[in-house]
Known about the structure:
- 18% of the residues lie in helices and 38% in strands.
- The protein has a six-stranded antiparallel β-barrel. The chain has a six-stranded antiparallel beta barrel with strand order 7-8-11-10-9-12.
- It has helices at residues 64-69, 126-129, 161-166, 184-193, 197-200, 203-206, 209-214, and strands spanning 8-17, 22-27, 40-43, 46-54, 57-62, 80-85, 104-114, 117-123, 137-140, 143-150, 154-159, 177-182.
- A hairpin with a 2-residue loop joins strand 7 and strand 8.
- The longest helix is centred in the last third of the chain and has 10 residues, at 184-193.
Amino acid sequence: MFTGIIEEIGKVRGVVHGSKSIKLSIQCGKIMEGVKLGDSIAVDGICLTVVNKKSDEFTADVMPETMRKTGLGNLKVGDGVNLERALRLCDRFGGHIVSGHIDGTGVVVDKTQEDNAIWITIETNKDVLKYIVMKGSVALDGTSLTISYIDEKCFKVSLIPLTAGVTTLGSKQVGSNINIECDVLGKYVEKLIFNNSSIENSKEDVLTMDFLRQNGFA
């Protein structure tokens, strides 16, 4: 479990390709403090397991399913990545609950400066957008952010100078891919309401005003 507060920008030191997987080596400093084999580290928002480590580097295996669902397959030697160690219960919770399990990817379609802030517009598919809520939370490449605009094709976030400087988001350009993890709360609510296949196939029929009244929501 993570919070979406990035601790360090690491650098890709090695990418070894399998037929459908990669072995990823990341150069970093602060992140290695106290890290043990088997620990979880979020790399651009994706929870990976440390399988080898040095004083300034860790290695993780990226399996085919992770390659299909995220943008890790696009990484090259020298690329920067956002890093966060797993949450400790004694830490302050500065962001929101981030699992490190990506819901999908998006593309930067616009980037605009407004005074001290940077607006980034992300275009993504409807399966991701259905969980995007105005003023709700989203993790972009593992960075906890607040949604400031949404429509049927895209959503926008605004970066303060600190966030732009200590994450890779400030260097993203139009056309860049971004890993997206939606707030887990919405997914659990959906699952609780539509909790079996028969209901799943008739959502419009189930979620009615009568249903809401019967369950104390209206």
